[in-house]
């Protein structure tokens, strides 16, 4: 009898323990449901995702929109500046295939992807839920356009002047760059690609400028010769190119080259005015006088050009 009583006692305890466990699970489930619904009985936006996105020109932009408890509602993306509907759920309503709507179920996130970002893509985008009335969440896209230029100590008025046999460094700087380019090509005279050599006559070095968003690619030319003159172009894979003209001088002075370029047009302009005066003059004596004055002007101009020192005041 004692044995059967003990067995009944243990069975009773086991049943009670099972009933308590079931009630505990029900209580936790009820509290979980209550916590999930809470103040929100329908769809709502999770505001923990960013609302200000910055992308670099030519790269990809990702605009996230987290929607909780969506149920049977739809999510749409609308470009706010022209009210163009871009997508409804995963279906696209724009001919531009750069736009795509991506849904990640694990995080309840609807992401608008824009490939090969352009300057015109900058602006506000609206994530909408098809409730009545509609619920909307605004995300702003900022497009950064990097600036590219070639810097050098020898640069003057857009051109570079170096002496034969010297070492020159062309430094191509990309400013405000969010993404480092995969490669930077250097061209000489527009079509000749310069090799990436670690030594010898040419050196090409690329690096991120410390403490900034700038990126630098340097072309070093050792023992420059006359044939190294010409146009040099720096061309990153994801940006526009920048160019500079290199002049390798063999004894001549850069100022003489610039003066030779600038003085001739001014002289020609004066001669054109005088020639016009000769043509419009009817009187032969006046024509002769103007012809003499023109001849004297040409002689004086040539003498000044051949002797630049005469222009310097003493």
Polypeptide structure, described:
Helix 2 runs antiparallel to helix 3. Strand 7 and strand 8 form a beta hairpin. It is elongated, with a radius of gyration of 38 Å. It folds into three domains: 44-144, Immunoglobulins (Immunoglobulin-like); 147-249, Immunoglobulins (Immunoglobulin-like, Sandwich); 263-302. It has a six-stranded mixed sheet with strand order 2-10-9-4-5-6, with no helix packed on it. Strands 12-13-20-19-15-16 form a six-stranded mixed sheet, with no helix packed on it. The protein is built from three helices and 20 strands. Mean pLDDT is 77; it is low at 25-38, 259-281 and 304-314. The protein is of the alpha+beta class and 314 residues long.
Please give a handful of descriptors for the protein shown:
alpha+beta; Immunoglobulin-like; 20 strands; 314 residues; 6-stranded mixed sheet; elongated; 27% helix; 36% strand
Stretches where pLDDT falls below 50 for ≥5 residues?
25-38, 259-281, 304-314
| Mean of all residue-level pLDDT scores | 77
CATH topology type of the largest domain: Immunoglobulin-like
Q: Would you identify the CATH H-level superfamily of the largest domain?
A: Immunoglobulins
Structural class based on helices, strands and sheet pairing: alpha+beta
Radius of gyration: 38 Å
| Tally of DSSP β-strands | 20
| Tally of alpha and pi helices | 3
The CATH architecture of the largest domain can be given as: Sandwich
| Spatial order of strands in the largest sheet | 2-10-9-4-5-6
Major beta sheet, specifics? 6 strands, mixed
Proportion of beta-strand residues: 35-45%
What's the order of the H and E elements? Answer: HEEEEEEEEEEEEEEEEEEEEHH
Level of helix content? 25-40%
How many domains comprise the coordinates?
A: 3
Anisotropy-based shape: elongated
């Amino acid at each position: 009898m004692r044995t059967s009583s003990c067995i009944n006692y243990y069975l009773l305890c086991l049943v009670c323990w099972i009933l308590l466990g079931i009630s505990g699970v029900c209580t936790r489930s009820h509290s979980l449901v209550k916590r999930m619904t809470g103040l929100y009985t329908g769809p709502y936006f999770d505001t923990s995702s960013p609302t200000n996105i910055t992308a670099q020109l030519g790269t990809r932009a990702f605009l996230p929109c987290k929607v909780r408890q969506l149920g049977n509602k739809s999510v749409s993306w609308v470009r706010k500046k022209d009210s163009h509907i871009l997508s409804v759920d995963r279906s696209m309503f724009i001919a531009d295939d750069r736009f795509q709507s991506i849904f990640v179920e694990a995080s309840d996130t609807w992401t608008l992807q824009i490939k090969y970002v352009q300057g015109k893509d900058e602006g506000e985008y609206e994530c909408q839920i098809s409730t009545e009335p509609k619920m909307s969440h605004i995300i702003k896209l900022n497009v950064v356009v990097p600036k590219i230029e070639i810097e050098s100590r020898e640069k003057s008025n857009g051109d570079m002047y170096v002496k034969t046999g010297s070492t020159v460094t062309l430094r191509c700087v990309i400013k405000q760059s969010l993404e480092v380019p995969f490669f930077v090509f250097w061209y000489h005279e527009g079509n000749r690609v310069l090799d990436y050599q670690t030594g010898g006559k040419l050196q090409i070095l690329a690096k991120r400028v410390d403490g900034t968003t700038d990126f630098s690619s340097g072309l070093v030319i050792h023992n420059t010769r006359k044939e190294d003159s010409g146009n040099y172009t720096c061309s990153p894979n994801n940006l526009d190119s920048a160019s500079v003209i290199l002049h390798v001088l063999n004894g001549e002075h850069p100022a003489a080259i610039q003066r030779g370029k600038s003085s001739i047009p001014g002289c020609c302009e004066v001669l054109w005015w005088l020639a016009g005066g000769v043509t419009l003059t009817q009187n032969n004596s006046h024509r002769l006088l103007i012809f003499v004055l023109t001849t004297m002007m040409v002689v004086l101009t040539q003498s000044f050009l051949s002797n630049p020192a005469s222009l310097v005041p003493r």
